[in-house]
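User: I'm writing a tutorial on reading structure tokens. Could you give me a worked example: one chain, its sequence, then its tokens, then a sentence or two explaining what the tokens reveal?
Assistant: Sure. Here is the example chain.
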Amino acid sequence: MAFREFTRSDRMASQILKVVAVAVREKFEYDKELKHVAITDVDVSRDLSIAKVFFNTLFPKYEQEAQQALNENAGFLRSIVAKKIHARKVPELRFYYDASLERGASLESLISKARESDPGFDEEE
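And here are its predicted structure tokens:
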């Protein structure tokens, strides 16, 4: 029995990521809430009914407005996905803010502070 490296939901997630990223960039280029939105990841449920679409914004102050605008336009974006990927079943799109960049930056600053406060730390070790 052959082992599949990627599941069907993984392949669907990859396709949705590409289509939604392009659609958001092209269709909402003049919308102030969505102008600086980047789609970072997509996670599709095993039964292909729900796709969690993660996004980030260049300006974190627009996080709430961007999430609201994306969820309001979820049906429109789903119709674009349906036209582009030609799947029998297209998952419902749900948008979530991806705070991993902020978490990474705060962890990096904590690590830097710890290194600075440790007098015995030598970077060449």
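What the tokens reveal: The chain has a mean pLDDT of 84. The longest strand covers residues 37-44.
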